[in-house]
């Protein structure tokens, strides 16, 4: 038996990077998976890949900056499969801004994608679980930068730090509903989105991965498939009763100084 046999999972931001890796890992472990994204091309290609591998998957086109589209994505999965058992919020906006140069518009974009979208996705998913009096599991993919981060991540840090508080608040509120909600503070990870960010905002060349890896304790960037395995574990019964935990998945130690 797979860790997620007979579970219905929605992965928000699931068409690339960590989200797509979670979708692949979940299908391997027996889940039926829905993935959201703004672009049909990557979403439909991923669903075709998962289906060809013997899985059952659904692409839901949604702009998660719009709360109504976020809630509608959950409703579409419930309509297609009858319920939602698991939710992963993996979408993230990482555009740069400091305290001094962040505009109100940029700040609002970060809040919309990095905090508001997980809030209303959880609202809709938990409502379905509570209505059915059924247990469920949720994992929010956050960031180790939520502890403070670099100066150029001011709006990103503000939104993701809020998601840490929301994760714990929702977990506490729904623990007697047997709905477990946990978060993962991931460190520097090699994804398509990170490649675009490094090139767009930092003028990085083709060797940025090697240069970054050389500065890291383990000599390499984190990998999406490694994170996906951990997320699947947290979604599954193998993680026991743990809820309200926000785990640092990183190779740097918070508070450690040389």
Q: Multimeric state of these chains?
A: single chain
Summarize the main sheet: 7 strands, parallel
Order of helices and strands: EHEHEHEHEHEHHHE
- Relative strand content: 15-25%
Which word captures the global form?
globular
Structural class: alpha/beta
Termini separation = 46 Å
Averaged pLDDT: 96
Q: In order across it, which strands form the biggest sheet? A: 3-2-1-4-5-6-7
Number of helices: 8
Note poorly predicted spans.
none
Write down the Rg: 18 Å
Structural account:
Strands 3-2-1-4-5-6-7 form a seven-stranded parallel β-sheet, sandwiched between helices. The mean pLDDT is 96. It is an alpha/beta fold and 258 residues long. The protein starts with 7 loop residues before the first strand and ends in a 9-residue tail after the last strand. The radius of gyration is 18 Å and the shape is globular. Helix 1 (17-28) crosses helix 8, helix 3 runs parallel beside helix 4 (104-132) and helix 4 (104-132) packs parallel to helix 5 (154-173). The longest helix has 29 residues, at 104-132. It has helices at residues 17-28, 40-52, 67-81, 104-132, 154-173, 192-202, 208-214, 224-235, and strands at 8-12, 32-37, 56-61, 86-89, 136-141, 179-186, 246-249. The protein contains eight helices and seven strands.
């Amino acid at each position: 038996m797979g860790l997620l046999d007979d579970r219905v999972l929605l992965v928000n931001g699931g068409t690339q990077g960590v989200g797509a890796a979670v979708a692949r890992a979940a299908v391997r472990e027996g889940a039926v998976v829905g993935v959201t994204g703004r672009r049909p091309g990557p979403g439909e290609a991923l669903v075709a890949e998962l289906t060809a591998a013997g899985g059952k998957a659904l692409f839901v086109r949604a702009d998660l900056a719009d709360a109504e589209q976020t809630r509608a994505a959950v409703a579409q999965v419930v309509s297609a499969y009858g319920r939602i058992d698991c939710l992963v919020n993996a979408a993230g906006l990482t555009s740069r801004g400091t305290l001094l140069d962040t505009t109100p518009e940029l700040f609002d974009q970060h809040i919309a994608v990095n905090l508001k979208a997980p809030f209303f996705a959880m609202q809709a998913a938990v409502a379905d679980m509570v209505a059915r009096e059924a247990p469920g599991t949720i994992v929010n993919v956050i960031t180790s930068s939520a502890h403070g981060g670099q100066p150029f991540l001011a709006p990103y840090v503000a939104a993701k730090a809020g998601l840490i508080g929301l994760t714990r608040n929702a977990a506490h509120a729904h623990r007697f509903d047997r709905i477990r909600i946990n978060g993962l503070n991931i460190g520097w990870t090699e994804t398509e989105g990170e490649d675009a960010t490094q090139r767009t905002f930092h003028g990085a060349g083709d060797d940025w991965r090697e240069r970054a890896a050389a500065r890291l304790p383990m000599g390499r960037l984190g990998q999406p498939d490694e994170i996906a395995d951990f997320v699947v574990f947290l979604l599954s019964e193998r993680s026991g009763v743990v809820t309200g935990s926000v785990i640092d998945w990183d190779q740097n130690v918070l508070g450690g100084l040389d």
